[in-house]
Amino acid sequence: MSYSNSISPDTISNSHSILKKEIERKFGQQIITAKECxxxxxxIYSRTSSLINFNTIRRFFGLVKTxxxxxxxxxxxxxxxxxxATIENLLNSVNEAQQKTENKKDTILLNYLxxxxxxxxxxxxxxxxxxxxxxxxxxxxxxxxxxxxxxxxEIVKTKNxxxxxxxxxxxxxxxxxxxxxxxxxxxxxxxxxxxxxFALSLLCLKNWLMNDEKSLALxxxxxxxxxxxxxxxGFIWARYFSAILFHAxxxxxxxxxxxxxxxxxxxxxxxxxxDTKVSQSFEFIYxxxxxxxxxxxxxxxxxxxxxxxxxxxxxxxxxYCLQKLLLLKAIALSRQKNIAESKKIYQLLKPSKFYxxxxxxxxxxxxxxxxxxxxxxxxxxxxxxxxxxxxxxxxLKTMAAG
Length: 402
Description:
- By secondary structure, the chain is mainly alpha-helical.
- The protein has 2 domains: about 10-85, no CATH class; about 175-400, Alpha Horseshoe (Serine Threonine Protein Phosphatase 5, Tetratricopeptide repeat), CATH 1.25.40.
- The chain contains 20 helices and no strands.
- It is elongated.
């Protein structure tokens, strides 16, 4: 008779595997022959005063075939030998020990990473070696939310953390998770107007994507109270004007005046301040906001401007930006009913090449485009709904509805 008729076979198998390891650890060697089974039976009796047939041990360790799992009495004897009253008690103990080990590893890793951010002397804002380190760190820890939150709280106090983690590697896919939480720490640690605008505008994007109009209004009000200096980098200005768009869209305000003023601003010399990377350019960032808010004609102007102006688009590093721009352009053309041209660009898109920090959001846009020009199918709809559910970006439903 098995020790539990209510536990699934997989659960029983897994718990037995753990129990076997604990028995061998207690015994001091592997159980692989009849000789060890005899010795183990003697050791069990010596330590617990419980008798167990060595054939029972052979069956439990798979040395002879059996159709049935070990009985509850057998399991209890093995557990008592390992110092536990029940199998549940043993499993809890093993899980706690594993968790302590993992926590210790996380602490060691956290301290090491914080030390690198604090002590590394990075003189060049475009230092690709350090930027690559940051990207690898994010990619490796992206699913470890707890550790990322702890890391953010520490590195937001460092120059490298602010510039390379928060500003150069915006984690769009985690706006509704740890990165969005980290932006609050960024705001608390960075009183400068341009840094406040950077973080608050991204929170406006988060609020807009989540249909959280109340929070969007509060964050935009804070943005409006700030005055940016004339030498503010282009990517900050792009965030600022994007926030204006998201706020206007949420209130269903006509954006024509806003778009004209932004175009006039872009035409001035204020943006000529060293924006050499397309990912940090005004046009690249602002075009994304224009597509999201359904301003496709204006978006095409900034998209085409970027495609012509930034040579690093055609490097390995800039390829993800090229993919994003092509995606945005295909959407703009599709929304303008230029389906033929949109389809041509669509054929060039490779979702596997989407940037890992915005891959989920970009994939959602790609699926929306697929529905528009290819009509999509039930799988397309299923994938899109899954992204919306996981991300909390409810605004994507509105975009998908056209």
